[in-house]
Structure formats: C-alpha cells, structure tokens
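the two lines:
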Amino acid sequence: MGSRKGFFTDTTLCIGCKACEVACKQWNQLPDDGFHFTGMSYDQTAHLGASTWRHVAFVERPVPLQGQASGAGDFSWLMMSDVCKHCQRAGCLEACPTGAIVRTEFDTVYVQPDVCNGCGYCVSACPFGVIDRREDDGRAWKCTLCYDRIGDDQTPACAKACPTASIQYGDLDELHARAETRVRDLHQRGVTDAYLYGKDAENQPGTGGLNAFFLLLDKPEVYNLPPDPVVPTKKAARSWASVAMGAVGMVAVAVGAVVLGREG
Amino acid sequence: MSDDTLLDRLQRKTDGRNIDSRAGILEGEGSQQRVKDPEPARHGMDVLSTVPSRSGPDSAEAPSYYGMPVLKEPLWIWTVPAYFYVGGVAGAASVLGVALESFGGRRLERLAERCHTVATAGDIVSAGLLIHDLGRPSRFLNMLRVFRPTSPMSVGSWVLAGSGAVNSAAWVLRRRPGVLGTLGRVAGRMGALLGLPLAGYTAVLVSNTAVPLWQQVGRTLPLFFMSSATASAGSLLSLFPHSKAEERVLRRFRIAGKVAELFTREAVELEARQVAEVGRPLRTGASGALWMLSRTCSMAGLVVDVLPGRSRWKQVTADVLSTVGAVAARYGIIQAGKASARNPQATFQGQRQGLGAAQVDGNTTASDGKPLSFPLPVLGQGAARTAPRPEAPYARFMVTQPEP
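prediction for all of em together
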C-alpha cells in the first residue's frame, strides 16, 4: 500500500452514460442535485459541487470530429467525466487553516469532514472550482478518490462503473505510460488534436501536475478547464512582501505624525 | 441496531458513510445532505437566442463551457468585508498608540489611551464578525488547531487572536504600578507589532485565492488596504472629541493615510486593468458602483480635510466621508471578486496572457530545455512560434508532438 494512485480520464472513450456520477453518488451516499434541466445540453448537473463529485460534461461543437464525417453535418460531441484533480500542489490543501484537508498515503487529497471548519477558504483557493461547501452545515466536500475503497485494494466507484474504460484508476506511473501510449496511438490514427492535460509538472507547472489527468481533444476552455492554472500560494510571497513594505510605511507614518505633530 | 459495538457507534458519528445493512437505509453523514432548492419555480419557457447545440464554445478566440463559471464564487458573507475594515482600524490604531506612547510625551497620553481602547475594541468586534461568518464560536477556536504558514487564513487567525489577547492585557494592565504596568506596556508594543500584519494580511487573504481579480491585484492590494486602514483609523479617532495638541498629530496621521490611499487605489486599478475581463467588475455593475462610491467619498474626504478652516462640522464631514469610502472599498473589492469569479473569460484570458503559472516561475522552457508546448498560453510567443497547422488546429496544446 501507499503507492501514488490517480485517475486517467480518456475523454475519447467517454459515451456520456453518467454511470460514474451515479456510482459515485451511491457509494458516497450523496443526494441528488434536484432534477433541473439546464436547457443547453444533456448536462444536468452542470458543475462539480458538494454533492456532485463526478460530473460528465457534454461539449457540443459546431465542427466535425477530426477525421470523421457524420450525417449531422458540422457537429460533434465531446464528453468528459470531470473530477477533483488531486493536484500535486493542491490549492485547497495549502489554504486550509485547520488541517482538515490532508494528503493521504496514496498521494490523494482528502477532506476530513469531522475537522472541517466551514470557513470556505478552500473553495476560493481551488483554481479548478472543484471543492464546494455544503449548503446545510457549511462544510466543504469533494471527491475522496474513494479513500475508503482504495485502502481495501478496491477500484474507486466511478472507475469500477465506467463501461468503456474512459476512467482508468491505478498507479500513477502506470497511468502515465498508458496515457502516452494512447496519445501516440491516436496521433497515428490521425487524431492529432489529442493531448494530455495536466499529466505532470512539466505539462502543468502551476499545480505540479495532477493525479487525475485527462486526455482531451479540444482547448481546455471548452471543457471548463483553466488553460494555465496556478496554485494561488505560488503568488503569495509577493503579497506578503507588499505587506512588509506597507508595515514599514505605516510605522513611518505613525512615528512621523507623532514626532512632527507634538509641540515643543 | 442493538448488537452494535461501541466502536460501531463511534464510527457512525464521524465517518459520514454508514448503511443499516439489514434495512438498506443510508444513515451516514453524507446522506443527510440536502440541496436547498431542489426545484426552483419555473417562470415560463426560456427562448434561447441560439440553437442549444451551437451555443457551446462561444467563439474560436474566447471559448467556454456554455459560459458557465470555472471557479466557485467566494462564499463570505457581509461580515467579512466589515471585518476587513474593523481589523484594519484596530491594527493601525494600535500602531499609532505605541508611537504616541514612545515619542508623544505627557500631553498626548490620553490620545494614546484612546488608540489602545479603539484597538482592543476593534479586535473584539473583529472576532465577533468572524464568528458570525463561521457560524459557531467553537469554530474560531478550531482555527487555532494548527498553524499553517501557507494559509493566510491560518496566519490571520493567529494574528487576530494574538493581538486580541495582548491588546486586552495591555488595556487592563497599563495603568497598574510596578511590574504589572511594565508587562502591560510590553503587551501594548506586541499588539502594535501584530497590528501591522492585522491591517495588511486581509489583502493577502483575498489575493491568495484563484479568484482572477483578487489574484491579479496581489501586489498592490496590501498597500491599499494598509493605507486605507491608516486613513480610517485616523478618521475614526478624529471623530472622538480631542484637544488641539492631539489634532496636530491626528491630522498628519490621517492625511498621510488618505494620500497614500489615493495613490494605492490607482495602483490597484492599474494592476487589475492588465486584463480587460479581470478589471471589468471594478468599473461595471454593483461592484463597480461600490468602487466608484468609495473612490468619490475617499477623495471628497481628503479634499474637505485639506480645505482651509478649522471648524468642527467640516472635520466631521471629512471623517465620515473617509470612513464611508474605506468601508465601501472593502465591499467593492469583495463584490468585484465575486463577479470576476463568475466570469469564465476572466479566468481564461488572464491565463492565456501568461498571467497564470507561466508568470510565476517564468515557465517557458521544460526541464530538458525545450520550449513548453503546453500549457502555454502565452499568446504572441508560444502561439507564433508553433503556428497551428490547418489540419491540426490545436497542435500547440499537444504534449506529444504528432509523428512527422
């Protein structure tokens, strides 16, 4: 036990069946999100949230899929099962003031519900907009990568339920090799749009790479993924430097006001 | 279930996923979760202006996922910007208090005392405002469970708790004779030392988030918050009745703060404007109106203050204007951040212009010395170097280059 685990989500294989969403909700006992109709696609849950830890995005594009002709004209669907990325440098973890968010022995990011304080700082600190606060008690929840299952050598519920192996779970090194092979294979078959999103620190320096990475066919933006996310902590040093500068100024103003303002 | 062990019962309380295996009923913590509004009232059929299947990626230049936000909106309620103001006043007042104590002499002793009172009261009110946001008093104590330097929220909790403690101690002990009095004065100095970060860390708190506007103004916002804290503390102290000698000090203190506020506000605007979409909430909508109100009031406060004449009503007008300006600035910044988090293009465009990870580390080359092909974003550099071939429009996002 204890090797680095993660997800490789190959969106070229996703058929949008939402088995992952349902399996996740069942295993983790998450409630439904209400039966809304978003009116823009078959995407009903719309985004990841406190009660949605897997979310299938339906990208409808006015262009055909690369290398394919379809009867529907200039149209193609891209489906992508989104999930918490379990970043190597996780914004939520670094922001959490109570230590409720921890890195597990599987190198995943886990929120301890009994420690979470409900301050909501992690919610703003996630550059992917994944973690969210529960409405009833204000605590933050997100994908645990089925921490309770993988400890027992079981596959996470979503990967187990995926009928097309679009969601693959395993050791990160093995997943990386598998993903590289898949991209090379796709390129050879003419799908040169395929690329890996967030595989490692080189591909996504801002987060040090993702434990849950993706094979995509279009710009990250169309899947609602940021193109060049950065863990906010990386930019914090200069803010603290400004505070130090401000402190010097404030002391100067206070002392100056007193020295120049006193009489005699 | 009657045959549960104590361990079963303890686990059921905390782990969040339990099932009564005989009845098949979910009874864990997760299952208690309910969405607040499962089915909002429908008001007629919306008529879409575009064919739904064509309304996905907006355009080749500015694609998005049906215009949905990437980020989650910040959740802080009204007490948090109020705390930004009160905490700033408390911090600046404690600094002025110690400066008066050290250099002011006997005639300014009463003003120093007043500064310390304002600082102590400010700390207590601040804690109350934060507890209101968290929901339960025990949650403020829970914030002190660990100290985590990467989290400005954690640093700030310790700063606020520490400054509240030492300022209260100083307030009680300062007048006592002997050792206790000395201890009180030392505590007062520590309060001033903690007051400096107390006035400025709130800006780090907001800029250390993924919210595009807040992240972008990370350099200038601390300076703005701290000069605004100086101006607000000066204005608030001037509202209390004070003597002529005290007025000489207060006037210098608050006018320096107001002038600094004026300049740093412009710096914040300039920094926000680097990316059009990111700076927009400071100019439009409710947040723009608040920001404009704040700017107008602060400027008017400064102008009225420096006008010739020493009448009391003029002084009060200036102080009230400055206070309104400072409070509105806090609310404006929070509202603008929320608006920029709702706009996916604010997130995307900043990063596409190299203000994401590429900006932080100068990430333009990979570890093997080759230029990064992804995520580089950097329009004008990366894009021009690897012009996309017509048959592979997204080639520049590729990790593995296509076989030649």
